[in-house]
């Protein structure tokens, strides 16, 4: 029989007051099990007409200030977030039968943070950030490939390749974080943390 925590849930939920610490533990285990991109997440946004949109992005940072991802600031996701800062994330690790859902508000990272991460990226990826007009319509793919060539000519030295002003990061400050563990016959286990002032309240949810 599986060991239980103080709430009667599987011991993998542990007995932590801070969900960020539990997230780090689950992410560490996912990094050992998931073959591709354990930091991949579904990001949900909504525009000013409340029309939802979802896409996959990669988590690139985590601190007490939030969950960080980077993107083109002219993309549809950024357009949504500029108008409506409410967003949600969902991580799903099938190999572990685990899922984490996060909701909260976003804000842009600092220029210093964005520059540091941008400079850590491969040269080709940084060139791509300059060349891609993300989410915009292109007449044919060749025009995009030509822009890549043109920017490579302009920035031959990878050490002299600045971050585009239209490229930065968003940080989601969580208001709720829910941990889910799959079980057979749909007798799943769910633990939800809700932000209350400077602390977190725990709730067990029916599956």
CATH domain fold name: Pnp Oxidase, Chain A
Give the overall pLDDT as a whole number. Answer: 96
Helix content: 25-40%
- For CATH, the homologous superfamily is named as Electron Transport, Fmn-binding Protein, Chain A
Poorly predicted residue ranges: none
Description:
This protein has 207 residues and is an alpha+beta fold. It has a single domain (11-205), classed as Pnp Oxidase, Chain A (Roll). It is built from five helices and nine strands. Strands 1, 2, 3, 4, 5, 6, 7, 8 and 9 form a nine-stranded antiparallel sheet that branches. Helix 4 (123-131) packs across helix 5 (141-154). The longest helix is centred in the N-terminal third of the chain and has 15 residues, at 19-33. It is elongated. The mean pLDDT is 96.
Keywords for this structure?
Pnp Oxidase, Chain A, single chain, 5 helices, alpha+beta, 207 residues, 9-stranded antiparallel β-sheet
Task: Describe the secondary structure blueprint for this structure.
Layout (H helix, E strand, L loop, with lengths): L18 H15 L6 E7 L5 E7 L2 E3 L2 E7 L3 H8 L2 E8 L4 E11 L2 H10 L2 H9 L9 H14 L12 E15 L7 E8 L2 E7 L2
Antiparallel strand pairs: 1-2, 1-5, 3-4, 4-7, 5-6, 6-7, 7-8, 8-9
């Amino acid at each position: 029989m599986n060991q239980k925590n103080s709430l009667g849930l599987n011991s993998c939920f542990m007995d932590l007051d801070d969900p960020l610490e539990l997230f780090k533990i689950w992410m560490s285990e996912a990094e050992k099990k998931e073959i591709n991109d354990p930091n991949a997440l579904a990001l949900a946004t909504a525009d000013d007409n409340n029309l939802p949109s979802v896409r996959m992005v990669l988590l690139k940072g985590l601190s007490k200030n939030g969950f960080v991802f980077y993107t083109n600031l002219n993309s549809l996701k950024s357009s949504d977030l500029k108008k409506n800062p409410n967003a949600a994330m969902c991580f799903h690790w099938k190999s572990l039968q685990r899922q984490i859902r996060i909701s909260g508000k976003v804000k842009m990272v600092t220029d210093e943070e964005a520059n540091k991460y941008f400079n850590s990226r491969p040269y080709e990826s940084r060139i791509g950030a300059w060349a891609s007009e993300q989410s915009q319509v292109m007449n044919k793919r060749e025009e995009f490939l030509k822009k890549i060539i043109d920017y490579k000519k302009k920035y031959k030295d990878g050490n002299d390749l600045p971050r585009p002003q239209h490229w930065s990061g968003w940080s989601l400050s969580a208001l709720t974080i829910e941990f889910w563990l799959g079980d057979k016959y749909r007798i799943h286990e769910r633990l939800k943390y809700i932000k209350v002032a400077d602390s977190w309240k725990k709730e067990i949810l029916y599956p």
